[in-house]
Design goal:
Radius of gyration: 17 Å
Structural class: alpha/beta
Distance between the termini: 50 Å
Number of strands: 7
Shape: globular
Number of helices: 8
Largest sheet: 7 strands, parallel
């Protein structure tokens, strides 16, 4: 799944949004990108676009919560340079008193256990490369809570702690661990998925906010962090739009 001498970058959740943008930008930076996601048709289309642009990409349908499938996927690689753990997402915005445990469970399974599954399976190949990088896409939600966000905050806090602990545990090995924590990012699907297709509710998240971050903004941040010299580790990078001072302080022009 690689051309000789071309470093491999694997991006999970690459069928849309930040994942798709990251795959495109890493490919343009010289990586052979492997796009993974559950929606095979979407990642195959994006991979084809990347290849048509003269870069290198392969699509592989994968559910990161399926541990056996992840382990099978990992056997295809002896070495990889970069793993971007982007698969995740939010469900619901209910208060703790009425939150749906199934939503909480699903968010934890994807954001935390999915990241764990993929990272564990590919860590040997990252180490074998002699210069590996693990990226964990957390969120500002993992660093500061807000009303109606406890389930998502808990899941992203788990992802944040996974990255922080892994960095401690593998120090001295040739693998960096980078956490990227985006704030308000307007993509085609994130808020709509959170509100189960309610586009009116999704639109209110960004109403009046001048220039929220885009998927390309975050992908550019990831690509910059990954392409630093090998001895430089960007432990944590929080990126927000200028209009957002915190999770609860957002300037809106209404």
């Amino acid at each position: 799944m690689t051309a000789a001498g071309t470093p491999i970058a694997i991006v999970t959740g690459a069928s849309s949004g930040i994942g798709a943008a990251t795959a495109r930008q890493l490919a343009a930076a010289g990586y052979r990108v492997v796009l993974t996601a559950r929606r095979k048709d979407r990642i195959e289309k994006i991979a084809a676009e990347i290849n048509e642009a003269g870069h290198q990409a392969t699509a592989y349908a994968l559910d990161v919560t399926d541990r056996e499938a992840v382990q099978t996927f990992a056997t295809a690689f002896r070495t990889i340079a970069v793993l971007v753990n982007n698969a995740g997402g939010a469900l619901g915005a209910d208060p703790v008193a009425t939150g749906d445990p199934d939503d909480w469970r699903q968010m934890y399974e994807v954001n935390v256990i999915g990241t764990l599954n993929v990272t564990q399976a590919l860590l040997p190949a990252l180490t074998a490369s002699g210069d590996g990088t693990v990226v964990v896409l957390s969120s500002t939600a993992g660093h500061s809570t807000y009303e109606g966000g406890a389930g998502y905050v808990a899941a992203k806090n788990g992802a944040r702690v996974l990255a922080e602990t892994l960095r401690l545990e593998i120090v001295g090995t040739p693998v960096r661990v980078i956490e990227i924590a985006p704030g308000m990012v307007k993509t085609d699907e994130f808020a709509t998925t959170r509100f189960r297709g309610d586009t009116e509710k999704a639109a209110k998240v960004y109403a009046g906010v001048p220039d929220p971050l885009t998927a390309d903004d975050v992908a550019g941040t990831i690509t910059w962090a990954v392409t630093r010299p090998p001895h430089v580790n960007i432990d944590l990078l929080v990126v927000r739009p200028r209009a957002q001072a915190s999770n609860t302080k957002v300037h809106r022009e209404l």
